Amino acid sequence: MKKYLLMGLLILIGSNVMALAGVAYNRMDEPTSQLILTERELQLPYNSRSQKENSGILLSINWRTATKADNAYTPYNSNETTVTQAQLLALGFDLPDNNYYAAQSRQLFWAFEFDGERHAAEIAKAELRYQAAVKTYTEQPNENHNRLKDDSLVSFKKEKLTNSRLFFVKVASDYESLADEFAGQDNMLFVKGLAKPHYNENNDSYRLFLQQLLITDIMLPLQYAERLKGLSRLGYQDITAPRYTVDIKWGSRLEPWITKVTRHE
After folding, report:
1. How far apart are the first and last CA of the chain?
2. Do residues 191 and 97 share a domain?
3. Which of 106, 148, 210, 246 is surrounded by the most beta carbons within 10 Å?
4. Is 148 contained in some domain?
């Protein structure tokens, strides 16, 4: 019995040592990304008010895909990107056919843009949508057009104030190619995520479904959790300025850690 207890203890100690070594290695060199995000990009958990005092808080990373350049504004996130056959092969996928429902997911490297051209374009498109809705209602005032006008105004306000500004840009099979391509842009974030290919036989096109980040949540340490005490996650209809900012760094393993939290009253 003592033998098994000792073995278990050694395994536990070994696991902790490996984990600490990984954390140290991740933070050893210069950060791969360094951003100041807000509540728009880092959301509180649904049960944040009932969070135990002796535990940290997990902040969920909220990211988006941009509306296609030639499409009108839509408030919905598609979580996919169009790719070519050559791009799929370069990413290490086999080409999916029209019955390829069991395609395997792959771990890839994703690049995000924070508060850049993509977000500015979304704001402009949301404003155009609202202006068009106002024009339609003015010319043909009825209940449906009034509802569309009001909904468009809400979307426009949310785009300016509450929606995430972290936009997916590109996916690659290696980190180095992304880092070289976006070198000098200090609003870029590089992470790991899972993606899966899809084939559309109707128009003979390929898409890449962006399933999820490998790290979807960031632990807010106890020394910072107190600063967000009493806050609850905003609802879908809530339109308010961000109530906190979070300074974050991503290390050589593309894993994040928080260095500062500021609450805005």
Report:
1. 56
2. yes
3. 246
4. no
Q: How far apart are CA 193 and CA 242, in angstroms?
A: 26
∠ Cα 90 67 188 (to 5°)? 60
Strands (E), 146-233: 166-172, 188-200, 205-213, 217-220
Q: What is the dihedral of CA 112, 116, 118, 121, to 10 degrees?
A: 170
Backbone angles phi, psi at 66, to 5 degrees: -80, 155
Within 140-195, residue ranges assigned H as helices are: 143-161, 175-181
Chain-centroid distance of CA 72 in Å reads 22
- The b/e string for 113-148 (b: 16+ C-beta within 10 A; e otherwise) is bbbbebbeebeebbbebbeebeebbeeeeeeebeeb
17 contacts: CB under 8 Å, gap ≥ 6: none
Q: Which two tokens stand for residue 117?
A: 């051209």
pLDDT tens readout for residues 83-94: 998 999 999 988
Q: For residue 83, give its domain range.
A: 31-113+165-263
Q: Where are the beta strands (DSSP E) in the chain?
A: 33-38, 42-43, 57-61, 80-83, 106-114, 166-172, 188-200, 205-213, 217-220, 244-250, 256-263
Backbone angles phi, psi at 88, to 5 degrees: -60, -45
Low-confidence ranges of the chain (pLDDT < 70): 1-25, 48-55, 96-102
Gap between the Cα atoms of 88 and 110, Å rounded: 14
Query: Which residues fall within 8 angstroms of residue 220, CB to CB, at 6 or more apart?
Result: 56, 57, 58, 59, 228, 246, 258, 261
126 contacts 117 by C-beta, under 8 angstroms: no
**How many structural domains comprise the chain?**
2
